[in-house]
């Protein structure tokens, strides 16, 4: 038991839950045991459009992107998730409905995954998990609304400069064409913006 407790205390997931959501130790061990480790290679998908999402993922190491295919057949990135990020599609996960989204690993990644049965148990029996889920949903909704508001008023150059300011660590990890898809512009537009900025 002592060895398990020590391992739990050192895991990225347990550290994240304690720091971000103030999990007490007695509930933390219960939650950690509900997750399993998943390894995914670069460019592999966790799920694609039409799949039913079976797990919620915590990124222990690596980088994921969630995206959808628009009516023109192009990819539109919704978000990137790196270490300590959460990734899933809850409507599909909770209601067993096919998702319209895709999640791809941009790097070899190590994830902690919880399935629906364990998720429902945690929500029903572990108070810290329930409160943490509510908090995480509030944070996600705020960020999505913020991004939507910015997208309606910012110029393409302002979008890129905001990305550089708020997510500088992603510039070294994500290909520019995927950053362009996230910012809702073509790679050519992003290239022109970067050139213009470098010449100032």
Please provide a brief summary of the model.
The protein is α+β, with helices and mostly antiparallel strands.
Q: Give the CATH architecture of the largest domain.
A: Sandwich
The coarse silhouette is globular
Cα gyration radius (Å): 18 Å
**Count of DSSP E strands?**
8
Q: Report the β-strand fraction as a percent range.
A: 15-25%
Strand order of the largest sheet: 1-8-3-6
Within the CATH hierarchy, at the fold level, what is the topology of the largest domain?
A: Jelly Rolls
Count of distinct structural domains: 2
Helix content: 40-55%
Summarize the biggest pleated sheet.
4 strands, antiparallel
Pfam family, one: cNMP_binding
Protein name: Crp/Fnr family transcriptional regulator
Domain Cyclic nucleotide-binding: 23-119
Organism: Hanamia caeni
Write the layout of secondary structure elements.
Layout: H1 2-10, H2 12-21, H3 25-32, E1 36-40, E2 45-47, E3 55-61, E4 64-69, E5 75-81, E6 86-87, H4 90-95, E7 102-105, E8 109-115, H5 116-125, H6 127-153, H7 156-166, H8 176-182, H9 187-198
Antiparallel strand pairs: 1-8, 2-7, 3-6, 3-8, 4-5, 4-7
Helix pairs in contact: 2-3, 5-6, 8-9
Domain Cyclic nucleotide-binding: 23-119
Pfam families: cNMP_binding
Protein name: Crp/Fnr family transcriptional regulator
